[in-house]
Amino acid sequence: MTARRSAEEQTRLEAALTHMFEHSIHFNEVLGLKVDSLAPAGVRLRLPMRKDLIGHFSTGRLHGGAISATLDALGGLALMVALAERHPADTADQVMHRFGRFGTIDLRVDYLRPGMGTEFVGTAEVTRLGGRVGSVLSRLHNEQGTLIATSSAAYVVA
Question: pTM of whole model > 0.85?
Answer without folding.
Answer: yes
